[in-house]
Write a structure and sequence with these properties.
This protein has one helix at 2-22; strands at residues 40-47, 52-58, 61-67, 71-78, 80-85, 88-93, 97-100, 106-110, 116-123, 131-133. It contains one helix and ten strands.
Length: 135
């Protein structure tokens, strides 16, 4: 019985350690690593098996594409653009939030002097393997 209690205690402590380490707080600099990029600059903020978060700067456009296995959420931090999702287009600006269901065509054209800066959260974890561009 005593060895069962020790085993249970060890498992409990390991679970607590896992839960605490999974909840780590990080502070990220949301300035681009470089301003010397042609069209798109991506900075990974965080990633685990459940989701990936990126800061993305776009000078011109993102071609129409879809993610077979990912839902994407985009929050506009700066700039303006014309966002197409499916067969609908809409003007976007700072403060707009866009939900893109998995397997849905989407793209954007920048409509401002400054780059479009967005936060993109994709779930599950995004490794870049399921992005398909429209021909």
């Amino acid at each position: 019985m005593e060895s069962n209690m020790k085993g249970l205690l060890i498992i409990t402590l390991l679970l607590i350690q896992h839960i605490v380490s999974a909840q780590t707080v990080s502070i990220v600099d949301l300035r681009p690593d470089s301003t010397n990029y042609d069209n798109i600059h991506v900075k990974r903020i965080s990633s685990d098996s459940l989701s990936s978060t990126f800061a993305i700067w776009i000078k011109l456009k993102v071609k129409m594409h879809k993610h077979i296995n990912h839902t994407e959420h985009v929050y506009v931090l700066e700039g303006k653009g014309n966002f197409t999702i499916g067969d609908k287009s809409k003007s976007i600006k700072k403060g707009d939030f866009i939900t893109i269901p998995r397997n849905t065509w989407h793209g954007v054209e920048v409509a401002s002097e400054i780059p479009l800066k967005v936060i993109s959260v994709q779930s599950p974890e995004f490794k870049g393997l399921d992005r398909i561009y429209k021909k």
